[in-house]
Amino acid sequence: MTDQFHASSAAPCLGPQARRGFLKMGLAGFASLSLPDVLRLRAESAPDNGQEKKAVILVWQPGGCSHLDTYDPKPNATSEYRGPFATIPTNVPGMEFSELLPLQAKIADKIAVLRSMRHGSAGHSPGTMRMLAGDPDTRAKESPKYPDYMTVTKYLRSKEGPRTNPLPSYVSINGPRGRIGPAYLGEAYSSFAVTGDPNKPNFVVPNIGLSNLAEVKRLGRRASLRQNLDTLERAFDQAGELKALDEFETQAMTLLTNAKTKYAFDLNNEDDRTRDRYGRNTWGQQLLMTRRLVEAGVDMLSTSLSGPLCGRVNNWDDHAVNHHVFDAMRFRSQAYDQAVSALIEDIYERGLDKRVLVVVTGEFGRTPKISYQPSTGAGNASSPAGTKQPGRDHWPRGFSNIWAGGGIETGRFIGATDKLGEDSIERVCGAGDFLATIYHHLGIDSSKVLLRDFNGRPTSIVVDPGKPIPELMG
Description:
By secondary structure, the chain is α/β, with parallel strands linked by helices. The chain has a single domain (about 5-470), classed as Alkaline Phosphatase, subunit A. The chain is built from 13 helices and 18 strands. It has helices at about 15-25, 80, 100-105, 125-135, 150-160, 215-230, 230-235, 240-255, 260-265, 270-280, 280-295, 325-350, 430-440, and strands at about 55-60, 85-90, 95-100, 110-115, 170-175, 190-195, 300-305, 355-360, 365, 370-375, 390, 395, 400-405, 410-415, 415, 425, 450, 460. The strands form six sheets. Strands 6-5-7-1-8-13-4-14 form an eight-stranded mixed beta sheet, sandwiched between helices. A two-stranded antiparallel sheet has the order 2-3. Residues about 1-50 and about 220-245 have low confidence and may be disordered.
């Protein structure tokens, strides 16, 4: 990283309220364009300078995935812990997964499993903010104090020069929630958000690829009019925010008028066999879209595996009051296994495995010891209200995530938990290490980059101390 990103020369941030006010003022001329997402079209990242920028796809498991029932089975533990699922071999000798993951077991040589994650934030929002933004505060907050790694990367890359790729640099497809976001960097560095179910036949991404030439010209005239009206304001624009606004509007116009953008987002351009291989469901088509977009030059992608495919409460939060944990794991496992294995296979088969890092994780794991409580309601993977059923609760002391691509050595486990899966005991890694590893892949030395926070204080982009995990450094 160059010195322009260090504390000594980092530009002050106006803070979210000032930036939000500026955006509302500056985009008033575009208010009639019916662009509900235009505020998400922000200053983009890296220049198209002939060098491929590294990219990351984050696949998020909101609520936390049970490590014992997936990547860290404990077949020799007592019935209080191990659960009902068998352990199966993978295509890597000595590497075993739960029976719920037969497709990933067949491509385990393309996966590295980090089994020794640990941190101290046991709540959903604090756990999410810790994993994705490095916030060590264990309290829930209404808004993020620190920006997540996706928005930080977008910010840093925007300083390298103008982006010529018409696609946004950061796209979230039904992305992770939990009070993450750009924080003190300002909304200019949020994602371009795609919402809805991409598996529906009538699914479209709004405000992408207008084909009506008359409408395109009309939008251009409106943009020109707004620029003429703000001449006086520019004389007082010492912070240069109106220049940034021009870039935002240019990006909005590009998304509306460039044929490449519409093509990249349109899953109908994939053959039926490929769509079937990912799974004709929300998760499968979300992950297929991430592959299409990263192949088209998007740098940062995030997508969350949530909703009805999870079970009654639409997430992986498998308390006994929410779900019958084992019914829930079985209920979601086919869609999960199919979509993730297809994405990883494509990353390698299409030659993206050096440039693109795939990370699959949640904010923590689930308790190794099984608990029993009355269900609070019937539904998918949950018994009728009042029925006693098994569950697993929040567990940040030891859990797993998987990594693929990024030029890393795969086909192995990294670290270990104890015989019951309760505590990470070997090659223990924290959230700071997790983030530093992702930044390393993106070419960012997180130990040297400081940005100014809301109060103008130089702040590390990984507040929770950490170093890149050597085994996961490509």
